[in-house]
């Protein structure tokens, strides 16, 4: 589901999630690499970084 941008909806980034779905469908799945890269960035990000916050600016819990 990450390739479809479901994580963006969960984090409150609805516009980015919709764009990611469209890109993945239009590129016949190749755009799913975007979701893989974002998932890795979220998992390895340091607390306080851009990738460790939701759309409202709240810190993600480990």
From TrEMBL:
GO CC term, one of those recorded: membrane
Transmembrane segments: 18-44
Keyword Transmembrane: yes
Pfam family, one: TM2
Keyword Transit peptide listed: no
Residue ranges occupied by any TM2 domain in the UniProt entry: 2-40
UniProt subcellular location: Membrane
Membrane topology: Multi-pass membrane protein
Keywords: Membrane, Transmembrane, Transmembrane helix
Name of the protein in its database record: TM2 domain-containing protein
Source species: Mycolicibacterium fallax (Mycobacterium fallax)
